Amino acid sequence: MLKEKAGVIAGQIWEALNGKEKGMTQKELKKAAKLKADKDLFLGLGWLLREDKIETKEEEGELSVKLK
Asked: Known Pfam families for this protein (predicted)?
């Protein structure tokens, strides 16, 4: 069940990032993907990182994410 949830959340994150050349901050992404909990955001990000679909970096103490 958690594996299915991770896949769904990864899809929401992908859709939110699609077309955003600069990427998004953690807060922007959480809001754009309509996620309520940080743990859900990180579950989806983990899925996408494992699939090598996103790049992450830390800017001014905040996580920034963009599609590869």
From this structure: DUF2582
Q: Which two tokens stand for residue 5?
A: 């949830």
Q: How far apart are CA 12 and CA 9, in angstroms?
A: 5
Q: Is the whole-model pTM more than 0.70?
A: yes
59 forms beta bridges with: 62
Neighbours of 46 (CB within 10 A): 13
DSSP label at 21?
Answer: S
pLDDT band at 34 (very low <50, low <70, confident <90, very high): very high
Residue 36 sits at φ, ψ, to 5 deg, of -90, -30
